Amino acid sequence: MLSRIAARSLKDAKPCLALIRPTHTTPVNKAEERDEANFPRPVRQIEPSKVRMGFIPEEWFQLFYKKTGVTGPYVFGAGLSTFLLSKEIYVMEHEFYTGLSILIMVVYAIKKFGPSIAASLDKGVDEIEGDWMKYRNDTVQNLKQAIEDEKKAQWQAEGQSVLFDAKKENVALQLEAAYRERLNTVYKEVKQRLDYQLETANVKNRVEHKHMVNWIIDGVRSSITPAQESAALKQCIADLKNLSKA
Predict the structure, then answer these.
(1) Which residues pair with 57 in a beta bridge?
(2) Which domain holds residue 85?
(3) Which of 12, 13, 42, 84 could form a disulfide with 90 if both were Cys (CB 3.0 to 4.6 A apart)?
(4) Is the Cα torsion angle 45, 46, 52, 58 positive or negative in sign?
């Protein structure tokens, strides 16, 4: 039954244009858009606002001064009280005097115990505020230290690239030293082999030369007769005598 009524109402209803307010899903940084000059951030009031007669705010009197002058607030208060009392709109029955008595006791208690209670409450507020300020300062210091650590880590990361380059250069120098050492080893081995060949050739030449000299000497000795040897010896003796005389 209800479905039929709903369908009939939708059928008889006239088409209407629905306006949908678009929503923004992109977050907005309100801190950057805030006008700090014209709309400063609220600051917690340390001392209470100034009052007159113990309970009437000073702003009320300032509001009347622009229209009625200095006596306006007092005349308005006295006239309003007289009107309410004279017309018995506000009736002063026994509860009025009870309230007046309670008001006197409250005023006395405020004057007597108000400063000590206010000092105690202010001390508690200062302690809470001090704890929050300490937490805030510690958080700021931790964040600053984290920023410094991050900068140091970035500086160390930059130094790692320099260290890698130095290590690469060191490895290249070690490879160059090993290459030169192997070249020197090859040079020494080749020189030793060449020196061996040269020494072998020199020994062969010396042996051949000695053998040739011995063969020539033996040949010469074998060709000399005893008579030639005796004549040569006599000639040598004669030459020595001539030399001694000269």
Answers:
(1) 51
(2) 52-92
(3) 84
(4) negative
- Residue 102: inside a domain: no
Whether residue 67 lies inside any domain: the answer is yes
- The answer to whether residues 92 and 85 touch, using CB atoms and an 8 Å cutoff, is yes
Q: Which two tokens stand for residue 164?
A: 């890698």
pLDDT of residue 14: 45
Domain boundary among 92, 123, 146: 92
Cα 21 to chain centroid distance, Å, stands at 44
Residue 7 has pLDDT above 90, yes or no: no
pTM of the model: 0.37
pLDDT band at residue 17 using 50, 70 and 90 as cut-offs: very low
Residue 129: inside a domain, yes or no?
no
Q: Give CA–CA dist 204/228, Å, rounded.
A: 36
Terminal CA-CA length for the chain: 175
